[in-house]
Amino acid sequence: MRKLVAIIVFALMISAGQTWAQCCATTASAKEKTACVTAKNAESPVKVYYFHASRRCDTCVAVEKVTKEAVQEYFGDIKSFQSVNREKEADLVKKFKVSGQTLLVVSGDKQVNLTSLAFLNARMHPDKLKKKIKSTISSME
């Protein structure tokens, strides 16, 4: 009986060590996943920002939803998506010279503004917007 308990404890210790060593494994804790995602986002030069107001229409909400889905679907946690309330984040608004609802893909000094395309397609043709977001991010890597 003692041997069986010792073997089980030993096996649990080994599996716990393997889980800890794999930063982004599905069995890792939420804290480890957050640390790994933060490290990946810091390495990635491409970031996606959606600037919006506090009061939002259905299209504004759809642009954010579709953009967030596209970034997650095509790039997982490797690329960063940030929804920015213009009325609360004055520093980012000033940095990117934003004056209204804006969808930006940014890599260093380069910016691609996808706002018009986003507002035309977010509700009726979300797949078209997702493909454009994917191709834009891929071209900026």
Q: What's the SSE blueprint?
A:
Blueprint: H1 2-21, H2 30-43, E1 46-52, H3 58-75, E2 80-85, H4 90-96, E3 102-107, E4 110-113, H5 115-121, H6 126-140
Parallel strand pairs: 1-2
Antiparallel strand pairs: 1-3, 3-4
Please tell me about this protein's structure.
By secondary structure, the protein is of the alpha+beta class. The protein folds into two domains: 2-37; 45-140, Glutaredoxin (3-Layer(aba) Sandwich). 57% of the residues lie in helices and 16% in strands. The protein contains six helices and four strands; from the N terminus they run ααβαβαββαα. It has helices at 2-21, 30-43, 58-75, 90-96, 115-121, 126-140; strands at 46-52, 80-85, 102-107, 110-113. It has a four-stranded mixed β-sheet with strand order 2-1-3-4. The longest helix is centred in the N-terminal third of the chain and has 20 residues, at 2-21. The chain is elongated. The termini are far apart. Mean pLDDT is 81; it is low at 16-42.
Compose a concise summary of this entry:
With 141 residues, the protein is α+β, with helices and mostly antiparallel strands.
Unreliable residue runs = 16-42
CATH architecture of the largest domain: 3-Layer(aba) Sandwich
- The helix fraction, in percent, is 55-70%
Which structural class matches the secondary elements?
alpha+beta
Order of helices and strands: HHEHEHEEHH
Notable characteristics:
single chain; 4 strands; Glutaredoxin; four-stranded mixed sheet; 6 helices; elongated; plasmid; 2 domains; 141 residues; alpha+beta; 16% strand
